[in-house]
Amino acid sequence: MTTEPYASARRVFWVVDNGSSHNGARSVERMRQAWPIATLVHLPVHASWLNQVEIYFSILQRKAISTGDFANLDDLAARILAFQQRYNTTASPFDWKYTRGDLNGYLTPLRRHDTTEPTQKAA
């Protein structure tokens, strides 16, 4: 928050998962007290797929770490750095095509379902 572009921004949004170190209303208040221009935004619970870092760590775990047997931490670090270098040469930006309209189209029937009267069972 002390470096640009954050230091001169009017508003900054920090998007976080619901990890134990930053979940709940107290974390929002701590952020507000420490950095008044910052707003802490929590991802929905069980939506780690929305967090791009979580996706990268998942790929790293599956492709580079769980497939190996490492003699020491230096070997593990070398594997991670090699994976990172290869990943960065082949990765491409994700073109998100799911729009707000798509989401609303999905949610509208769900909302209607939640507000309808329950059907009575025949006796």
TrEMBL record:
Pfam families: DDE_3 (PF13358). It comes from the Bacteria. Residues 4-76 form the Tc1-like transposase DDE domain. This is Tc1-like transposase DDE domain-containing protein. It comes from Brooklawnia propionicigenes.
